[in-house]
Amino acid sequence: MKSYIKSVVEINDSKKSRYFALIIQLLILLSIVTFSIETIPDLKPQTIAILGSIEIICVIVFTIEYLLRIYVSDKKLNFVFSFYGLIDLLAILPFYLSFGIDLRSLRALRFVRLFRLLKLARYNKAIRHFTKAISIAKEEILLFLFITLILIYLSAVGIYYFENEAQPEHFSSIFDSLWWAIITLTTVGYGDVYPITAGGRIFTFFILMIGLGIVAIPTGILSSALTRSIEKKEE
Amino acid sequence: MKSYIKSVVEINDSKKSRYFALIIQLLILLSIVTFSIETIPDLKPQTIAILGSIEIICVIVFTIEYLLRIYVSDKKLNFVFSFYGLIDLLAILPFYLSFGIDLRSLRALRFVRLFRLLKLARYNKAIRHFTKAISIAKEEILLFLFITLILIYLSAVGIYYFENEAQPEHFSSIFDSLWWAIITLTTVGYGDVYPITAGGRIFTFFILMIGLGIVAIPTGILSSALTRSIEKKEE
Amino acid sequence: MKSYIKSVVEINDSKKSRYFALIIQLLILLSIVTFSIETIPDLKPQTIAILGSIEIICVIVFTIEYLLRIYVSDKKLNFVFSFYGLIDLLAILPFYLSFGIDLRSLRALRFVRLFRLLKLARYNKAIRHFTKAISIAKEEILLFLFITLILIYLSAVGIYYFENEAQPEHFSSIFDSLWWAIITLTTVGYGDVYPITAGGRIFTFFILMIGLGIVAIPTGILSSALTRSIEKKEE
Amino acid sequence: MKSYIKSVVEINDSKKSRYFALIIQLLILLSIVTFSIETIPDLKPQTIAILGSIEIICVIVFTIEYLLRIYVSDKKLNFVFSFYGLIDLLAILPFYLSFGIDLRSLRALRFVRLFRLLKLARYNKAIRHFTKAISIAKEEILLFLFITLILIYLSAVGIYYFENEAQPEHFSSIFDSLWWAIITLTTVGYGDVYPITAGGRIFTFFILMIGLGIVAIPTGILSSALTRSIEKKEE
């Protein structure tokens, strides 16, 4: 019996295991969709009731899955405190905790339900590649993230110097200028703050010429680490 | 006779075949241009009449081309149900269907005429390379598209948490926040929605630092698959 | 005498030739700066007089340079009709033509003076590399520019379909929608036009996911062609 | 005694040297944070007093560090006029100068304190890699920066020609148009200025198609130089 359940619950190439994994993944997605719909303001009471029912079904299935995983694992404590074991617990805990505590705190608990998204990691190759790539390039990314931060800071100081007098409402302090620096150097450019003085515009030009290359570096390192990670697997 | 028509209609290096292909391509472009002009509001009746005439000429030529292709193909049914056969049919069908049905539905049918653009695929090397590149990198692109989707979703949840109270009209639900997440992580940054709270801005900073690298990955995979596809051809 | 002038006027490693080239380049830049200042509205009469004098000095030097180049070239007609010969002529011609014609047309002639910028090509390594890189990758760039154009067109048609009813003032025809498609797919995102319907936003999401990769391809091809062009030179 | 201080102050793998470096780095960051907070308008007098105290502590430690570095160096004058020696001096000089001069000029002096950020260069691997990468690719970057500048200038002239009449307040001269060209070609796109005429929009399309590839080149050269610089170190 135990070995049969194990063959279903654990990831392998058998048909039953695949169906089980697919059902769990679909339930995770369903759970995330209901979470998103709940945030829409002014929902009808019957919609809220339906969403509540779906939530209960999801939690019941995830609880059964969690208990089965404990049951089939040889070293039960090891599983409970493993990465996946903790995520499985975090995915159902908020629901059970919400019975014992005040309704006011429920709002924050709702967000904890997002840990269910991490449950997908167990089944997803891309996430495994991604985690590996980050661990490969960790040091390099940190190093150049540091240069990026210095550049963003210096840009903020510079634009504060040029624009503070002309636009005291937008560039009131270096912290406000940092927002401009981030949005400009990533080329997002919302248009909520932008320089209007000649000095500020010339400074923006130089910062962009230098900055685009620097901000792109951590991105480039991550991308190349990922490619290497995939190629290794293929070999 | 049949073999002569075949040598003209089918793609090969003969002069006649090239002229035939060029005429069809020019008619496709002409057909697309008239389609675009038709969308301009308040056209003069005589302009509409001229556009209608061009449309009729295009459809007649495409119909003759379609019939010739059926005529010269050895396995006629195979051609009719092939990719190019269906596109050739879709390019002329809306015109003939518009006689038999109510005028109200014409609007939607108009858009079906855009399938003519796909007729260009037969003649265009770039499109063939492109289709091949996608089939090479299909699995990888899907994997990282999935991570991109998770990142966009988590960004939307995060910004909803930070900005919902301050800007309930822009970040009213997670679905509204998703729009912000897409426009920000692709660095389009229209400026219709942007965070105004300190928490939301710091969150945006972290999301951009992490996100730009991730969103660039499917793009990078497609580009490198294309380069490989072109290099293979050259060998 | 002729061989001495030749050694000065033509590009080589001698000191005199370098100084001559430097003076011409500085005069080109000076000429461009005066051209830019002339566009500022409401200039003082004395500023206009100074700019006019600088312009006359530049033209005199460029005319002498042009005549010297004809004098030192062995096949004079070949030089006059060569790429650089024509540019040298175009750089001075507008000035002399402006005496014989009506003052109204002067405005358009002013822009012809920008050909002087092309004179820099003679002295600039980067421009030579750049021209070579384009000729290497010409075919590939054209092929993928074609796909980019199709994608931009299809995006415009799609957004027209979704947004035309909701925002008839911004998406009045496919030509207006094309502007949106260009600004969105290049991630410039001015924010003058953007979708507001749910359908239009979902469509934008898919177009961005597919489009960013495609629009980046011609860019990538040009960059890699340039790198190859530089590396070849180094060998 | 001197050799003991030397082993602490200079960068090496001993524990004491690491702690010393860490304390200095933390003080630099603290000094930068207080500098940023000082720019917030309408601070309470007690906050200003606390920031002033932190500033004094930082300067005292940096002064001691500077004197120790002079003491332990064998060729004292060489250190004083070395890159790091001058930075260490610049980091403390503004504080001491502010006693002797008028309070009005203090504002400009404040910014000189940012040189402290450069003190981090001594301890930071990424900055060393970065400086090296720039020196490797210096010539290439300059060459293509030049093409980028020409492209930005030509874009500005073109848009001035198309938009000046329609929007004289936004495109009043070529200098105003240059701002548009920079913000558009880097894809920042604030949305403060954008073309509204059909000609200007078509021109923008062509400029973007050509320009994105060109503006990306110096960025690409810097990135690849950095990768090479890191790989060399690893070997």
Summary tags:
Four Helix Bundle (Hemerythrin (Met), subunit A); 235 residues; 2 domains; 77% helix; homotetramer; mainly alpha; 10 helices; Helix Hairpins
Task: Please tell me about this protein's structure.
Four copies of one chain form a homotetramer. With 235 residues, the first copy, chain A, is an all-alpha fold. Chain A has two domains: 2-123, Up-down Bundle (Four Helix Bundle (Hemerythrin (Met), subunit A)); 138-234, Helix Hairpins, CATH 1.10.287.70. Chain A contains ten helices and no strands. The first copy, chain A, has helices spanning 2-9, 15-38, 45-72, 76-80, 83-100, 106-112, 116-119, 125-163, 174-185, 198-234. In chain A, helix 2 (15-38) packs antiparallel against helix 3. The longest helix of chain A is centred in the middle third of the chain and has 39 residues, at 125-163. The first copy, chain A, is extended, with a radius of gyration of 25 Å. Chains in contact: A-B, A-C, A-D, B-C, B-D, C-D.
Shape of chain A: extended
Strand content of chain A: under 5%
Tally the beta strands of chain A. Answer: 0
Largest sheet of chain A: none
CATH superfamily of the largest domain in chain A: Voltage-gated potassium channels. Chain C
Secondary-structure map:
The structure is a homotetramer of 235-residue chains.
Chain A (H helix, E strand, L loop, with lengths): L1 H8 L5 H24 L6 H28 L3 H5 L2 H18 L5 H7 L3 H4 L5 H39 L10 H12 L12 H37 L1
Helix pairs in contact in A: 1-3, 2-3, 3-5, 5-6, 8-9, 8-10
